Amino acid sequence: MHVMEGFLPPLWAAVWWIVSLPFIIYGFVELKRVINENKDALPLLGICGALIFILSALKLPSVTGSCSHPTGTGLSAIVFGPFITAIIGFIVLLFQALFLAHGGLSTLGANTFSMAICGPFLGYYVYRALRDTKLNMYITVFIAVALADLFTYVITALELTLAVPAGDLGFGGLFATFLGVFAITQVPLAILEGAVLALVFKYIVDIKPDIIVRMKIFSEEKIKAARGE
Amino acid sequence: MKYQFEIIVGIIVILFIGVFLYTASVNPDAEFGGSDGVGSAVVSELTGVAEDDVAPLIPQWAPPSGEIESGLFALQAAFGGIILGLGFGYLLGQRKINQN
Lengths: 229, 100
What we know:
The complex is a heterodimer of chains A (about 230) and B (about 100).
Chain A: H1 10-37, H2 42-55, E1 60-61, E2 66-68, H3 74-80, H4 82-99, H5 108-131, H6 137-163, H7 170-207, H8 209-214, H9 220-226
Antiparallel strand pairs in A: 1-2
Helix pairs in contact in A: 1-4, 1-5, 2-3, 3-4, 3-5, 4-5, 5-6, 6-7
Chain B: H1 4-26, E1 33-34, H2 35-47, H3 66-99
């Protein structure tokens, strides 16, 4: 999902930076608040943040004959909300821009917007919409995580579509082309990521169900139902 | 069933590997390069500026070789792995203390 350095014209690079900056700043404030006030949640914050570091470093092959990587942002968005996820995702993307030449500093705003903001926000609202339904909570986590992953790549496709002259293809045709490159590749990865992170979430619930209840992530009844109690 | 969830995830992992093996076998020319690169190639085609000629807006350091790049990626994953283990270890230790 990295838009590489130099591939966005200065105007669009600036636009995505300006759009992303408030999320990063508010995320930083939120992160400080959680670290200072909710010491109990720190191991959980470590787990959720670590998953973003690990999964976004894993390049996996896909059906289109190219490789892509999961984002790992969905679980963090569910547990800590999209703003804290924005700052963690931003840190990962900054590391990759500085040391790996995956995405650049001028396109960091655009990459942050897709992976650290849009994906987590979509995942968070999907989780919120499904949280109080009858659906098993692990399936809720699976769906929210998978869609957060997939949506990131839809936004990357949109960012490139907006930045490049469409020519004969037209806006829709160009968007479809980029979706073919990014989103289709991502579908199997999103499913895999959803399943793996749902399993990680199950382990967290198994070890420490009380903190999930206390942080109001899922209700006690939901947890009992999912664990077959 | 105790390991129902693990089995489902295991099946999804095996299916994922199966899809990869199938794709690689029906499409021997597939390079499995990064989709970022494929996206950039589409951009280059449309703008008419070759990928290598795209000027960075902000100068960028790039890992001199694929080896160094993969090493840095491994470092990123290792850092995540350490924190992940620390987090789960802490939770498990806490549970043990509370049980006693």
